Amino acid sequence: MKPELRAFWGISRKRKFVSQICVLGSGPADICVLVNENALMPNPFGTPERTSAAAFPRYSSGEVLADSASLQWPGLFVRRSRFPRTVDRFLVPATPEPLISCVLAGSAEFQERDIGGAWLPRQVRRGDIFVTGSKTPYELRWRSPLGEETEVIHIHLAVDQCLAAFEMVYHDKADAVEVTDFYGRDETLVYLSFACAEMLSARTAGNAKRVAALAHLLAIHIAEKYTNIASQRPDYRGGLPIARLRKIEDYVRAHLAESISVEALAELVELSPFHFSRVFKHATGMSPLQFVTRERIVRAQQLVRETSRSLIEIALEVGYTSPSHFAQVFRRVVGVAPTEFRAGL
Question: Is the fold of 3-232 the same as that of 234-345?
């Protein structure tokens, strides 16, 4: 996701066209979402780079089990989907409506990236939350253990619902509010997401007052926690914002030959080492030192495959001064010793 591009798609109450959103005034009737699917440029995936929340299920790689469209829920577009064990590459088109995803069941080795960028890995499990206001498409891929296929609920918040929440929370600053990205644990969003799933299963009609109340609660929660203005007061309970995770990842990859401490990583995101370790594990499923070890060995594997350099040289480049320690860690992570790995190429 590219936060620097969000201004191109930002939500504003002033009269202007902002990509897929045209806002003519301050009321819900003055808001329209303009999507011409035929005019969107195709890509190698056969999926448009932008779509609407209403059209979003057409481009899902999963089986839609339940959909709020037939129930006419106001302010929300909600789908529950089951996904196959393995998806190699899947393009998620951007939408004007912010998206909340919650894993309802299953687990997976999950990766996401900007198109053509570096993959960001995670271990996802029941109750994990992903929030995005990204206005550019992104790629996903994942692999689930046998019997652990994931079920996910996708909740798009309608544009007018978001605008009303921004105005209620930020008043005269509402025009500058943009939804930011988050991955981690958020017990409030988990509760609300599971409530959505139960209401879908019960086929709750759109005119039920609890549907409108749920939409309002979701929009207010996003406004208060996952916006550019809210992020000026960092609160990392439950996980780290994606931009912070990428900052850690970039630092680790640039300093593999050096000693990397938890204290140094925590300082990058302005947290105490204890708090950083907790939220990092929530976000990635690994401790910071496990992540560093994995990055060292991934780089070592690449060097073994692509160069004829000695194993001692490779060990030094990825931060191991002891060849025996390097071989021990390599075997633990990869399953074979570096010499066996090279011989099998």
Answer: no
Q: Measured on CA atoms in the order 280, 285, 287, 292, is the torsion positive or negative?
A: negative
CA distance 143 to 259: 32
* CATH architecture entry for 234-345: Orthogonal Bundle (1.10)
C-beta of residue 188 within 8 angstroms of C-beta of residue 221: yes
Q: pLDDT (tens digit, 0 to 9) for every residue of the chain, 345 residues total?
A: 333 322 223 333 232 233 333 444 444 434 444 433 333 334 455 678 888 889 888 888 889 999 999 999 999 999 999 999 998 888 888 899 999 999 999 999 888 888 878 888 888 899 999 999 888 888 889 999 999 999 999 999 999 999 999 999 888 888 889 898 888 888 899 999 999 999 999 999 999 999 999 999 999 999 988 888 876 655 555 567 777 888 899 999 999 999 999 989 988 887 778 778 888 887 777 889 999 999 999 999 999 999 999 999 999 999 999 999 999 999 998 999 999 999 888
This model's pTM is above 0.85: no
Domain boundaries, the chain: 3-232, 234-345
Cross-strand pairs, 313? none
Both tokens of 15, joined, read 């009269």
- As a whole number of angstroms, the distance between CA 124 and CA 107 comes to 5
The CA distance from 23 to 13, in Å, is 6
Q: What is the DSSP string of 82-149?
A: E--SEEEEEEE-B-SS-EEEEEEE--EEEEEEETTS--EEEEE-TT-EEEE--SS-EEEEEE--TT--
How far CA 112 is from CA of 3, 92, 249, 276, 289, in Å, comes to: 15, 10, 13, 22, 21
Q: CATH assignment of 3-232? A: 2.60.120.10
Owner of token pair 């090279």: 342
